Amino acid sequence: MSFSTFVRPDVRVPWFITNITGITQDHVQDAPSVTEALTSFSRFVDKDAMLIAHKAVFDMGFIRENCTRHGLPVREVGVMDSLDFSRKIWGSGVGHSLDDVMERLQLSPNDARRHDARGDVRILAEAVHRMWGDRFLEVLREHDLLLEAKPAEYPCLTNSHHCLPVFSNRV
After folding, report:
1. Under 8 Å between Cβ of 78 and 151
2. pTM for the full model?
3. Does residue 160 sit in helix, strand or coil?
4. 127 CB contacts (<8 Å, ≥6 apart)?
5. Over the stretch 119-165, which tens digit does the pLDDT of each residue have?
6. What stretch of H or E contains 76?
7. What is the edge-to-edge ordering of all strands in the sheet holding 152-155?
8. How far apart are CA 67 and CA 65, in angstroms?
9. At 141, phi and psi to the nearest 5?
């Protein structure tokens, strides 16, 4: 099960965004509004979901800001930052951007376009799979990265930059 949507911005897509992401005005012209996209994603992510994001502080702040701006309610959901785990695995002497992690894990973007949320989520999913493998939940608990005790204040959600619903109690 997955969620993906473009969002119709209030302004035209700038050329430099198209150069970075490949997303054009034609892609977003008939897309849902920010409010519609946030509401749809919030419905998609159930109350027991754990979200994984790379640089989660950025993503969660971006989502919270947009929910606040559009008068949407805030709810809690578990969030784990794969950036924190990368730092625990490889230490402070190396970079921890998604590109750094991809290089370290010898990941190729294949057909996924970097800096397009749809591509970045696929890359992050593979990075998470390789970093944690079969011991995923055990490692999260072992390194105190399962944030059940202090879930992020999570607004109704969006297809944020690198956000990825990974599992819920239904799995």
Report:
1. yes
2. 0.68
3. coil
4. 54, 82, 98, 101, 102, 105, 107
5. 788 888 888 888 876 455 565 566 555 444 333 433 444 333 333 33
6. strand 74-81
7. 152-155, 74-81, 50-53, 164-167
8. 6
9. -70, -45
